[in-house]
């Protein structure tokens, strides 16, 4: 079992521990005397990582040791799986919401290509929970397995548990054993959280990425504001500049991973957030507040503007395209709008290959899409 980090005795102790590691992992030509000296280093963005990985495959300038798996996320960007323990640190999230050796976790995150399934697999091992590695989809089978084996916890995107619960109700599967929902990879809307709590399911969210692992998380007693993981240093900076913003100001999330075997320095995850205005021992962020670029995350997968551009180039029948993501009821909806004289069915395979998500394809007249340069539009109302 990997024991999650314990609460430090003081803010000074936490910063001293982080500074000690930072001094070890910083480049030799950069003098680090305090945490603010991180600003001496440039911000690394996904475009930088993509270029580096193309020049030096598979991981570019990042050189992890003890690699056991190589995952691929959209981009493509490659991430390592590593030997032993909970290297992504998600076990701290499960522990914080009460999941332990008494629980059976239905892990509906994908186990192939992207590392989300592996992240929560190692997290469950860290707290000695039993895992049902089901992956995404197959809602009837998910409901049947969870009912038969009396699953007590769920890991997955915020809205997929609703689909499983609805299917269980239709098929008369008893899911009353379900007590916890550990969700990520999408916004957790207040009405969705409330619907789970009405069914006696404690629903909490965490925030992390394939690149840097766990960033922040809610606890059993704390929602909306998320506790920053001890294993990272988070900065909120002005988008595109790397200059730190004041607490409460929304800006770009930049993360430094304090891992001596696989350090990542000032990596922009491309999201917007802000530090919570509190004087607690450990800092908190307010959660996801949008993308620093046009990319958006749906059901654990990013939809990027370059994907839309590539799709248009692949078919002569498409003049222009725009993806709109909205939230209907308790579920996300993806509309792929295409300026084309052809029927929507013609593009079903192309759209599926491009996004690997369930979408609605809508063909519209040429010239009817807005001329605002937006290829991916996220219309979902952000949680308060």
How does this model look, in words?
There is one protein chain. The protein folds into two domains: 11-45 and 65-285, Rossmann fold (3-Layer(aba) Sandwich); 296-378, ANL, C-terminal domain (GMP Synthetase, Chain A, domain 3, 2-Layer Sandwich). Mean pLDDT is 90; it is low at 1-5. The chain has 384 residues and is α/β, with parallel strands linked by helices. The chain contains nine helices and 19 strands. An eight-stranded mixed sheet has the order 4-3-5-6-7-8-9-13, sandwiched between helices. The protein is globular, with a radius of gyration of 21 Å. Helix content is 24%, strand content 28%. It has helices at residues 11-25, 46-55, 91-97, 116-126, 139-148, 160-171, 190-197, 305-314, 348-355, and strands at 67-73, 77-82, 104-107, 130-133, 153-156, 180-183, 202-209, 213-219, 222-228, 232-237, 251-257, 264-273, 284-285, 296-298, 301-303, 320-328, 331-339, 360-364, 376-378.
Tally of separate domains: 2
Helix content: 10-25%
Shape: globular
**What is the distance, rounded to the nearest whole angstrom, between the alpha carbons of the first and last residues?**
36 Å
Strand % is 25-35%
Computed over alpha carbons, the radius of gyration is 21 Å
| CATH H level, superfamily name of the largest domain | ANL, N-terminal domain
Multimeric organization: single chain
Main pleated-sheet profile:
8 strands, mixed
Total strands: the figure is 19
Q: Which regions are unreliable across 5 or more consecutive residues at pLDDT < 50?
A: 1-5
Structural class: alpha/beta
CATH architecture of the largest domain: 3-Layer(aba) Sandwich
Question: Which fold name is given in CATH as the topology of the largest domain?
Answer: Rossmann fold
SSE order, one letter for each helix or strand: HHEEHEHEHEHEHEEEEEEEEEHEEHEE
CATH C-level label of the largest domain: Alpha Beta
């Amino acid at each position: 079992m990997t024991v999650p980090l314990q609460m430090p005795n003081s803010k000074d102790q936490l910063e001293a521990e982080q500074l000690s590691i930072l001094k070890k992992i910083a480049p030799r030509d950069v003098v680090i005397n305090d945490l603010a000296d991180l600003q001496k280093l440039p911000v690394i963005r996904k475009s930088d990582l993509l270029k580096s990985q193309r020049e030096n495959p598979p991981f570019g300038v990042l050189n992890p040791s003890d690699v056991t798996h190589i995952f691929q996320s959209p981009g493509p960007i490659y991430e390592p799986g590593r030997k032993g323990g909970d290297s992504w640190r998600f076990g701290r999230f499960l522990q914080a919401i009460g999941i332990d050796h008494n629980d059976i976790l239905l892990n509906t995150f994908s186990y192939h290509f992207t590392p989300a399934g592996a992240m929560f697999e190692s997290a469950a091992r860290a707290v000695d929970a039993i895992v049902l590695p089901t992956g995404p989809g197959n809602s009837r089978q998910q409901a049947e397995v969870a009912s038969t084996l009396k699953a007590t916890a769920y890991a997955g995107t915020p809205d997929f548990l609703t689909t499983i619960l609805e299917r269980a109700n239709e098929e008369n599967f008893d899911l009353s054993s379900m007590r916890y929902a550990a969700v990520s990879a999408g916004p957790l809307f207040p009405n969705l959280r409330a619907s789970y709590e009405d069914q006696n399911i404690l629903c909490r969210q965490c925030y992390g990425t394939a690149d840097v692992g766990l960033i922040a998380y809610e606890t059993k007693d704390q929602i909306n504001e998320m506790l920053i993981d001890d294993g990272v240093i988070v900065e909120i900076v002005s988008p595109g500049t790397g200059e730190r913003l004041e607490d409460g100001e929304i800006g770009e999330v930049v993360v430094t991973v304090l891992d001596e075997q696989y350090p990542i320095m000032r990596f922009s995850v491309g999201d917007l957030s802000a530090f919570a205005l509190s004087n607690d021992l450990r800092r908190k962020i307010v959660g996801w507040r949008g993308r620093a670029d046009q990319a958006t995350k749906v059901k654990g997968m990013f939809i990027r503007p370059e994907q839309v551009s590539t799709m248009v180039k692949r078919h002569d029948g498409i003049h222009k395209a725009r993806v709109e993501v909205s939230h209907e009821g308790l579920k996300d909806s993806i509309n792929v709008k295409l300026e084309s004289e052809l029927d929507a069915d013609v593009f079903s395979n192309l759209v599926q290959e491009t996004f690997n998500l369930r979408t609605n394809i809508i063909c519209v007249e040429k010239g009817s899409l807005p001329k605002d340069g937006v290829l991916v539009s996220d219309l979902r109302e952000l949680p308060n």
